[in-house]
Amino acid sequence: GDCEMCPVGAYKDVLGPGPCAPCPAGTYFGGEGASNVSTCAACPPNSVSPEGSTVVGQCECREGFYGALPFNSSYQTGRACWKRPGTDFALRQTPGDGEPQVGWYYPSESGYGAYEGAWQ
């Protein structure tokens, strides 16, 4: 019989007939024909995805971590999930063009002030 490539989100590390395995939870792969589990890319730090994920956007922050930006192919980063330093802090994104600066801020009289060490 003819061989068929594994679909997106799956791999098979042996040649011949048999099922393809889904990329494990916490990984994703958007191409066809993956021949090894290492082809499945890891989600950014502090995030996880369901088994068989095909895009980085399926990675979501783990419990206890919070993010301000969705993951996407043009802004794929490990900086999107943080652990909250305290209940008074809010996750904010700086305005403007270019790469956003996201971090924990504390409330102040003039709005929100940057939390030292928040940038990762």
Please give the order of strands in the largest beta sheet: 9-10-11
**CATH topology term of the largest domain:** Tumor Necrosis Factor Receptor, subunit A, domain 2
Indicate the low-confidence ranges by residue numbers.
Answer: 74-78, 115-120
CATH level 1 class label of the largest domain: Mainly Beta
Radius of gyration, taken over Cα atoms and rounded to an integer in Å:
19 Å
Explained architecture:
It contains no helices and 11 strands. It is an all-beta fold and 120 residues long. The strands form 5 sheets. The protein has a 3-stranded antiparallel sheet with strand order 9-10-11, with no helix packed on it. Strands 1-2 form a two-stranded antiparallel ribbon. The termini are far apart. The C terminus is likely disordered.
Question: Could you give the topology of this structure?
Answer:
Layout: E1 10-11, E2 21-22, E3 27-28, E4 41-42, E5 47-48, E6 60-61, E7 65-66, E8 82-83, E9 90-93, E10 102-108, E11 111-114
Label this structure with key terms.
0% helix, 26% strand, three-stranded antiparallel sheet, 2 domains, 120 residues, rod-shaped, mainly beta, two-stranded antiparallel sheet, 11 strands, Tumor Necrosis Factor Receptor, subunit A, domain 2
